[in-house]
Amino acid sequence: MKKLARLTALLLTGVMLLLLASCGAAPNPLTPEQQARQEIFNAIKEVRQKAGKSSLQEVPALTQLEQEFIENFREAGTNGIPLSEAEKLEGELMDKQKKAGWQLTGGIAYSYSGGSAKLSHVYEGNTEAFRKDLSYFISVEDASTALSIGVVTIEGKIYWTATTLKPIT
User: Fold this and answer.
1) Could you give the CA distance from residue 101 to residue 111 in angstroms, rounded to a whole number?
2) CA 133 – CA 139 distance, rounded (Å)
3) Strand residue runs (E) in 43-142
4) CA dihedral of residues 71, 72, 76, 81 (deg, nearest 10)
């Protein structure tokens, strides 16, 4: 009987130690791109809240589509691609968004000059220049309910795109 009690106590102690260890384990750290995406989302939310605008929810399926769009720049190895290619990719993105039941209401993707499209929004932290970029999200129509953010690192810089959307009714 004593052996069974000792064995039970030992087993319970082991289980408790495992539980304590799992609670104290550090979470997996975010990659710089994941951290930038979260910080961008939080900053947009804050800017809109201060302006009295409705909050935007990040929809994972839409973020995945946005990420697929911006990955084309990473694959090119540069923040610039031919404008015709960027417009084609943007059209494909909008078609996928529509098939998912969403309509574009606004976005920050790239700038263009001549025949070139360039990612122009570099995330370097919560700076004055970054906050100025976010002022765009105050003017986005109130019917917007969703936000998607794409983030890539090219040549050591973190570039980002963002799109606001509303459900197709």
Assistant:
1) 27
2) 12
3) 57-58, 80-82, 102-108, 111-113, 116-118
4) -130
Contact between 123 and 153 (Cβ < 8 Å): no
In contact, 73 and 154? CB cutoff 8 Å: yes
Residue type at 57 in one-letter notation: Q
pLDDT tens figures, 80-102? 889 899 899 999 999 999 999 99
CB-based contact 125:38 (threshold 8 Å): no
Of all helices (H) and strands (E), which one includes residue 114?
A: none
- Hunting for tokens 């409705």 — which residue is that? 54
Residue bearing tokens 């909008």: 94
Q: Are 157 and 74 in contact (CB under 8 A)?
A: no
DSSP string, 35-66: HHHHHHHHHHHHHHHHTTPPP-EE-HHHHHHH
Residue 126: partners with Cβ closer than 8 Å, 6 or more residues away = 39, 43
Residue 14, helix vs strand vs coil: helix
pTM above 0.85, yes or no: no
Helix and strand element counts for the chain (H, E): 6, 7
